Amino acid sequence: MIIKMVYTFVFITAFAALSVSGAYAFTVDVIPAEVKPGDVVLLQIEGDSGTAAKAEFLGRTVQFYPAAENRLFALLPVDIKTKPDKYPVSVLRDDRKETRSVFVRSHKFKTVKLTLPEGKVTLSPENQKRATNEAVMLKKVWSEKTGKSWDGAFIPPTETEISEVYGVNRIMNEKKNSVHRGMDFRGKTGTPVRAINSGTVVLTDDLFYGGHTVVVDHGMGLYSIYMHLSEFKALQDAAVEKNQVIGLIGSSGRVTGPHLHMSVKLDGVSINPEALFELELASSKREIAD
Ligand SMILES: [Zn+2]
Predict the structure, then answer these.
(1) Residue 27's domain is classified under what CATH number?
(2) Same domain for 117 and 203?
(3) What's the CA-to-centroid distance between 113 and ligand 1, angstroms?
(4) How far, in Å, from the CA of 167 to the mean position of ligand 1?
(5) Does the pLDDT value for residue 2 go beyond 90?
(6) Residues 144 and 266 in one domain
(7) In this structure, are 100 and 128 located in the same domain?
(8) What distance in angstroms lies between residue 185's CA and the mean position of ligand 1's atoms?
(9) Are 166 and 38 in contact (CB under 8 A)?
């Protein structure tokens, strides 16, 4: 009888401890917890990669993917138009919900005024039609979500200087307004352009604005886009490794001189590539010891 009581006591205590400490709950890290509009947020579940999880943030639902060391990762885009505020992010797993918050701070993006020949600002009806059709085609490309193929940290596509950052507001001839939703790298024609992570080449095409353009699908709805190339160095549908040369810098498309325009789409949103490069993402591949 006494033994049985002890057992019962232990059982109840253990059960209560589990409930109170939330042993069935999971740990979610938000990295970084404070961002600028246009940045990317990494959500990390620690401890177990066994069951599926999803996150809800700013009206979109994003799946988690298994990553290194028993972790689950999800990458969340913060649209550049997001108003500064504290936003909830909910993580759902096994009928459980954990809520964290992401603080979007205000950021003043630079404005530049450009004076260009009128023909560079106002498009002919044929060019307008071509540009519109290509925009529709591209939107279809990054609406596809494939399995994760990126691994570890993302790297810049060249070692050359940045000539224009993400988010700059360009006013052309005091009438046309466009936001720079990528980043520009300096470089002479022929400078190698490298894949920012591993993935699959899903587009090599000659576009009206982008000129010779390569799109790499990294999975999880994450795409990198490389424009104005002088040459392609990767084939359509080919698998590419991180750091592999996929093209050469050029001045194809609507440009005034040779440079690389590189952009990143995440779940259809143009995010700041610099914010992606800054994320510390562990590789799930075993490191080779020296
Ligand atoms: Zn650009």
Answers:
(1) 2.60.40.10
(2) yes
(3) 15
(4) 10
(5) no
(6) yes
(7) no
(8) 8
(9) yes
pLDDT at 50: 64
Distance 89 CA to ligand 1 centre (A): 31
**Prediction pTM value:** 0.88
Distance (angstroms) between ligand 1 centre and the Cα of 34 equals 26
Distance 144 CA to ligand 1 centre (A): 24
Task: Evaluate whether residue 67 is within a structural domain.
Answer: yes
CA–centroid distance, 95 to ligand 1, in Å, is: 43
233 shares its domain with 135: yes
263-266, long-range: CB < 8 A, 24+ apart? 263/181, 263/182, 263/183, 263/224, 263/225, 263/227, 264/182, 264/196, 264/222, 264/223, 264/224, 264/225, 265/142, 265/221, 265/222, 265/223, 265/225, 266/40, 266/75, 266/76, 266/77, 266/221, 266/222, 266/223
Q: What is the pLDDT of residue 114?
A: 87
| Domain shared by 131 and 62, yes or no | no
Q: Average pLDDT over the chain, rounded to whole?
A: 88
Residue 259 CA, ligand 1 centroid: distance in Å: 8
Q: Ligand 1: distance of its center to the CA of 170 in Å?
A: 11
Confidence of residue 290 (pLDDT cuts 50, 70, 90): very low
User: What is the percent of the chain where pLDDT is above 70?
Assistant: 88
Last residue of a domain, one of 104, 135, 164: 104
Tokens 């995010």: give the residue.
271
- 166 C-alpha to ligand 1 centroid (Å): 8
The whole domain housing 77 covers 2-104
Do 124 and 25 share a domain, yes or no?
no
Total count of domains within the chain: 2
Q: Are residues 41 and 100 in the same domain?
A: yes
For 43-99, how does the pLDDT look when each residue is reduced to its tens digit (9 = 90+)?
999 876 567 899 999 999 999 988 777 788 999 999 999 999 999 999 998 888 999
Per-residue pLDDT at 24: 55
